[in-house]
């Protein structure tokens, strides 16, 4: 039966149909806490409007998409077979300690090692993540700086995922990631508060006391942080909107090279630039169309007026 949104034909025979089916037939990709190899699909990552701009589609086709490895940490509780895509967050795997990024308050210790590892202890003392089967690469790490939200089509494999992380390990990993994210955000907020305090103090120098702001003793509630807004957009995003769309596989043995996750985010940024340019082009076309329609309406109105006056 074809999907109305994508035209994709879903094979109902590929889905489990009865209790007599083998247990592994109940597995689908992406599965909770599984390792996956993924490649970005630039064209599918565009919004429906941008896909209608030939220049945007052609620009996406020219992009080079590398393969990356990631851990699927969570997924939506309900999978709808006929939905074109399913969204979920991932932790991208990187080889070697993640670099320090002072301007974002990121430190190498804000990471979690993944077995196998040649290092006796992690710089933060954290125990390495253990998978159901050892990964093909050593000295790899996960960090919240490698988190991202993606979407992909659901796949019914012939066998269950080979590389997974059990629930307890996944919960521990999520707790560590959340803690690191909280610390980085708190440091950022503290620095911003200090800067605002310095600006207020400098602004008040030389001004009469009566002209200075008087505190009310009530904290002003700011809007949601950028991270919170991103999370809301992730769960509420429509299929027609732009979002990083990937092709996935559970077979890590096919991965020939563990690419730098910095390249992954460069690919994402390149698609975002194309999307932005396409949106501007669509906006210009709509404005031109509205202008032409208005001119046409005025011409018709003038022609009708002339006809009445001549009659």
Automatic annotation (TrEMBL):
Residues 1-19 have a biased composition (Polar residues). Residues 1-22, 196-231 are annotated as: Disordered. This is Uncharacterized protein. It comes from Favolaschia claudopus.
């Amino acid at each position: 039966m074809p999907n109305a949104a994508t035209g994709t034909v879903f094979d109902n025979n590929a889905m489990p149909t009865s209790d007599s089916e083998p247990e592994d037939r109940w597995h689908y990709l992406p599965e909770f806490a599984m390792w996956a190899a993924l490649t970005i699909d630039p064209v599918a990552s565009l919004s429906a409007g941008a896909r209608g701009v030939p220049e945007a589609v052609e620009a996406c086709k020219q992009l080079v998409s590398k393969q990356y490895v990631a851990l699927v940490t969570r997924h939506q509780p309900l999978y709808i077979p006929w939905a074109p895509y399913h969204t979920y967050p991932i932790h991208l795997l990187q080889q070697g300690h993640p670099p320090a990024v002072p301007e974002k308050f990121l430190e190498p210790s804000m990471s979690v090692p993944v077995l196998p590892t040649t290092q006796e202890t992690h710089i933060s003392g954290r125990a390495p993540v253990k998978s159901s089967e050892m990964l093909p690469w050593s000295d790899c790490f996960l960090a919240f700086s490698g988190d991202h939200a993606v979407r992909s089509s659901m796949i019914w494999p012939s066998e269950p995922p080979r590389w997974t992380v059990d629930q307890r390990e996944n919960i521990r990993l999520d707790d560590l990631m959340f803690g690191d994210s909280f610390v980085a955000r708190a440091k950022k907020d503290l620095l911003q508060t200090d800067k605002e305090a310095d600006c207020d103090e400098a602004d008040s120098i030389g001004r009469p006391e009566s002209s200075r702001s008087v505190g009310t003793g009530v904290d002003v509630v700011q809007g949601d942080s950028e991270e919170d807004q991103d999370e809301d957009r992730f769960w509420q995003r429509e299929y027609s909107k732009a979002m990083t769309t990937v092709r996935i596989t559970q077979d890590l043995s096919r991965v020939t090279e563990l690419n730098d996750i910095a390249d992954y985010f460069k690919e994402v940024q390149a698609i975002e630039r194309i999307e932005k340019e396409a949106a501007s082009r669509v906006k210009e076309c709509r404005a031109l169309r509205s202008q032409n329609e208005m001119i046409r309406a005025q011409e018709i109105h003038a022609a009708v007026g002339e006809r009445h006056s001549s009659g």
